[in-house]
Amino acid sequence: MTQPSSSSSAAKPIIEVRGLGKNFIIKRSLLGRPLAQVGAVDDVTFSLMPGETLAIVGESGCGKSTLGRLLMRLIRPTAGEVLIDGQDVTNISNAAMRQQRRHIQLIFQDPYASLNPRMTIAQTVAEPLMLHNIVPAGQRAKRVAELLEMVGLRPEQANRYPHEFSGGQRQRVVIARALASEPKVIICDEAVSALDVSIQAQILNLLKDLQKRLGLAFVFISHDLGVVKHISDRVAVMYLGKVVEIGASDLIFEAPRHPYTRALLSAIPVAAPPSRQRSRAARLHGDLPSPLSPPSGCCLHTRCPYARPECQTVSMALHTEENGHANACAFWNELPDEDATGPVREPRNPKLEKLFAAFEAMAIKPVQPTAGG
Asked: 20 to 30 Å CA-CA from 349: which of 32, 272, 287, 319?
């Protein structure tokens, strides 16, 4: 796992998010007045330091992908602020925001859908160089070749089209395009979930290598906690648009505070000795409530195994400990120990074991151009 350097800890955040919110109007009157809306992101606050990887996790529909688009201002927030390098970009002009996007790039889940099938790889990677006038026209071909080699592709592949590459190779092209603008932050929105396990490990190790070489910061959006554990420095857990827990990755996985975080971890079969298995006591009940009418008080109380009557009215404000670990459960220090009911043996997860083995195998190998993957 990549650790921020000591100098990074004293530096200013690259991204600051303050009370960020986004509501989508789903019904209007005949006169255009909003009649119903759904809250996708609600009062989210965090910061991202240079060289750090912040993972954002949660169930489908929790708002994590919407949050990523808000950071890029691909959609405008309903409330709150986003600061990039200290500049509030919430209400700046579109032209000014295009300049800011040079420093913050986005990698999507489906590499084929995010590449223009009519453009060669050379044209795709060179486009940011042209838009931001990063290198003179005569040097763009050389820079494209350097970027392709940086992500493990051969320069002679530059004149091919996206359909001529495998899924892993296409994702490498997308990474090269993101690097072309010389960004400080890359947002990875489920960047490896569409790939098979062995290719996932290659792409993740590539991202970690690039982070070490270039000092990049990552916002890593994922539902795969096995991947998140290996790549993240900090983790933010979202539920119904709210951050319910945020802290150092090691603490999140070893000592989760919020019942929802406990449930996410206990729901995944873990390749570990029985003594390290988590209890079924943390499992949630029922289905995810409708975002159109979220529960009052703590929005988890309808599913939480530790819910009490007070949870229906209690605030979901984050409670921050001295070490910076924060969670939104008002009674977190009164919850039973995770192992109070005894460990439960889960079937070993072959996919997770294969991913761990691939990580170990790839960690000691330098990134080299590959013909496939």
From this structure: 287
End-to-end CA distance of the chain: 23
Domain ranges of the chain: 6-237, 257-352
- Residue 250 gets the label, from left (phi > 0), alpha (psi -120 to 50) or beta, of alpha
Half-sphere exposure of 129 (CA within 13 A, CB side): 22
Q: Which CATH architecture has domain 6-237?
A: 3-Layer(aba) Sandwich (3.40)
Output the pTM of the full model: 0.82
Q: Which of 257, 259, 256 is nearest to 301 (CA)?
A: 259
- DSSP for 135-179 reads S-GGGHHHHHHHHHHHTT--GGGTTS-GGGS-HHHHHHHHHHHHH
pLDDT digits (tens, 9 = 90+) for 213-248: 999 999 999 988 888 988 999 999 999 999 999 999
Q: Given CA atoms 268, 216, 102, 49 in this order, what sign does their dihedral have?
A: positive
129: which 2 tokens?
A: 């160089």
d(CA 294, CA 298): 9
Best CA proximity match to 111, nearest among 172, 66, 176: 172
Cross-strand partners of 57: 237
Sign of CA dihedral 90, 85, 191, 263: negative
Residue 271: CB atoms within 10 A of its CB come to: 18
